[in-house]
């Protein structure tokens, strides 16, 4: 049985109503969806309790996750959510890829917890050689990629078959 989660409910409702959730919308700025997220009194708690397996089944969850995270009122809240998500960084490729792409380094959170998330994602990428996660980390790390030889090797191997690397 699924545990109630106000973020998941807001996302499902937005999908049912075809609300804009697009990350770089120049028409509406995702205003209605963002207002709904702002109205969630338990947004931080909902994000902390988020089940990656559950949310990944819902269309447009990655961008919605970014909006929700950026809507948290303080760096301390954002850090708490990222720390709650860290256990998923051991094996949940899609979730980790989306969090690194949409959240880490893009929102005002602690540099320390961002670095911890990146380190865990690098270990996962080196272990799995997942092309999408490697590409995301290459984009996030930039020149710092050279400090991670295992990931660099994976990027070089994947770069032969990827336009993004």
Describe it:
- The chain is mostly helical and 165 residues long.
- It is 61% helix and 0% strand.
- The chain has 2 domains: 1-71, no CATH class; 74-165.
- It has helices at residues 6-16, 31-38, 43-48, 52-55, 61-70, 75-85, 93-102, 111-128, 131-141, 149-159.
- The termini are far apart.
* Rounded radius of gyration (Å): 16 Å
N-C termini distance: 41 Å
Counted beta strands: 0
Overall shape: it is globular
Q: Residue ranges: pLDDT <50 for 5 or more in a row?
A: none
Give the SSE string: HHHHHHHHHH
Strand fraction: under 5%
The count of domains is 2
Number of helices: 10
Helix proportion range: 55-70%
Mean pLDDT: 87
Largest sheet: none
* Strand-pairing-aware structural class: mainly alpha
Task: Considering the chains and any ligands shown, give keywords for the structure.
165 residues, mainly alpha, 2 domains, 10 helices
């Amino acid at each position: 049985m699924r545990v109630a989660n106000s973020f998941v409910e807001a996302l499902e409702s937005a999908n049912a109503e075809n609300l804009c959730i697009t990350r770089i919308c120049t028409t509406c700025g995702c205003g209605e969806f963002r207002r709904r997220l702002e109205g969630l009194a338990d947004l931080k708690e909902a994000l902390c309790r988020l089940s990656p397996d559950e949310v990944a089944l819902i269309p447009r969850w990655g961008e919605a996750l970014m909006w929700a995270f950026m809507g948290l009122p303080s760096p301390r809240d954002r850090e708490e959510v990222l720390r709650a998500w860290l256990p998923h960084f051991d094996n949940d490729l899609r979730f980790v890829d989306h969090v690194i792409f949409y959240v880490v380094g893009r929102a005002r959170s602690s540099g320390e917890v961002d670095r911890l998330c990146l380190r865990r994602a690098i270990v996962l990428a080196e272990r799995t050689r997942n092309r999408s996660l490697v590409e995301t980390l290459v984009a996030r790390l930039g020149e710092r990629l050279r400090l991670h030889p295992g990931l660099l090797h994976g990027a070089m191997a994947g770069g032969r078959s990827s336009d993004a690397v």
